[in-house]
Amino acid sequence: MSVTMENVKKERKRRLTAPEVVRLQKMCRDRLVSDLYAQKAWPGMPISGARTLSDLYKIPLSVVRSTLDSLRTEGVLEGVPREGMRIVTLPRRPQSLKGIRIAMIAELEESNPNHIYNRSAEIATGMDRVLNEQGGHLDFFNLWKRKEQTDFLPQMFHSGYDALIVTAERYRTADIFHVSSSSPIPCIFVDCSVNGLDCVDFDDEQIGRVIARHALDLGHRRTVFYHFPCHAWSVMRLNGIRKEFAERGVPPPDVLEYPFCREDKEDFVFRNFDWITKGKYTFVMAANDRLANMIFQAARRNHIRIPEDFSLSGIDDSPFFRELNLTTVSLHSMDLGLAALDLLKRKLFMRETYMEPERVLVPCQLIIRNTTIPNTGDSYE
To answer: Which is more confidently placed, 110 or 52?
Structure first.
């Protein structure tokens, strides 16, 4: 027993080799700097003590102390008697995108003007601007006219790029996911949320909560969610709405389902508009702005006023429907691109710290316009 305890103590006191110390110091610094930026730290803000950081980062206490001493020497931190350490100035992030070459694989439907305003295009625009400022480069591959090639993505892994950004729809459902997990370079799926992959997406459940909160704050209780049941993002939005209603102790909204059939367009909503009128709803939550526009046009044909007869909200803040002055949730696709670049930096320059796949969810903002008003207790006849 005593021999075993002695071995444990010896193991704990084992001296780290010089390469191990350097590696752990870099890991500690990168992790601390990343956390400071994530916390939106400011000069004068106190930081956790060395022992707390050691437990949090699973890095030996001696290495954490030496890292903090180094940051103090650089003027990043300063010691305060009997208080610990606080920030003097935020350090510059150690990573740079200078010289980094990124391939973005997308599907942009060029034949349909309504699909040219596409998240892939906005994501690429935001990323390209940042990369140009920092000396990086982005190549855009549009697969819309390309024949189905299951080996296209694996080929890109060995084409001289430092990273891949994937927004192409076909790669979200194909059996290509397992290929990306063994990729020699970082591969980030954007506008997509899949466990086990590095991916960036909007937080659809939070989006549903934002809309539900707005409806409830306005006093609406007779509500309905017009839903695309075949889309996972619509399901997540509905889940968020239901959770918000449940937490408020309010019965969940009714649900209307819109089938995925392009040929119907707004005619389906018009033919079934009595679903809304018979329900005497005071607030209709549409799964996105396009569906909200169909509801708006059907209401106009039925001589029903919005928001006087019922409030209406959408999701997207699409420029195609801005003339409606629609209350909506703004989904800025450029935010996806910027979040993807932040994730990519961690995967490129902090590999040892961020080895596990990350799922980044981007929050969104409610935009209140003219299609929602407080509930007065009246409804249309």
So the answer is: 52
Phi, psi of 250 (to 5 degrees): -110, 140
**341 close to 188: Cβ distance less than 8 angstroms:** no
- What CATH number is associated with residue 76? 1.10.10.10
* Residue 234 CB partners (closer than 8 Å, separation 6+): 227, 228, 287, 288
Q: What is the pTM of this model?
A: 0.70
Token pair recorded at residue 368:
């209140």
Residue 33 amino acid letter: V
Q: What's the CA angle centered on 272, arms 267 and 274, to 5 degrees?
A: 135
Q: What is residue 3's predicted lDDT score, i.e. its pLDDT?
A: 45
DSSP letter assigned to residue 307: T
Calculate the alpha carbon distances from 230 to 234, 257, 266, 360 in Å. Answer: 8, 9, 18, 23
How many domains, in total, are found in the chain? 3
Percent of the chain with pLDDT over 90: 31
Residue 372, in any domain of the structure: no
- The confidence score (pLDDT) of residue 357 equals 86
Domain shared by 214 and 307, yes or no: yes
Per-residue confidence (pLDDT) for residue 239, from 0 to 100 = 97
Asked whether the beta carbons of 330 and 364 are under 8 A apart, the reply is yes
What tokens were used for 298?
């059907």
Q: How far is CA 69 from CA 25, 53, 75, in A?
A: 11, 14, 10
- Count of other CB atoms within 10 angstroms of residue 290: 18
Is 222 among the domain residues? Answer: yes
Answer whether residue 346 is part of any domain: yes
307-345 residue pLDDT tens: 999 999 999 998 888 899 999 999 888 888 888 988 888
pLDDT for 12? 44
* 57-61 LR contacts (CB < 8 Å, sep 24+): 57/27, 57/28, 57/31, 57/32, 59/24, 59/27, 59/28, 60/16, 60/24
Task: Tell me, yes or no, whether 142 and 195 share the same domain.
Answer: yes
Could you read off the pLDDT of 248-269 as tens digits, one per residue?
Answer: 999 999 999 988 655 555 588 9
224 and 188 within one domain: no
Range of the domain at 185: 101-202+334-362
Q: Please report where in the chains the tokens 């700097």 appear, as a residue.
A: 33
3-state SS, residue 278: helix
Distance CA(297)–CA(301), nearest Å, equals 6
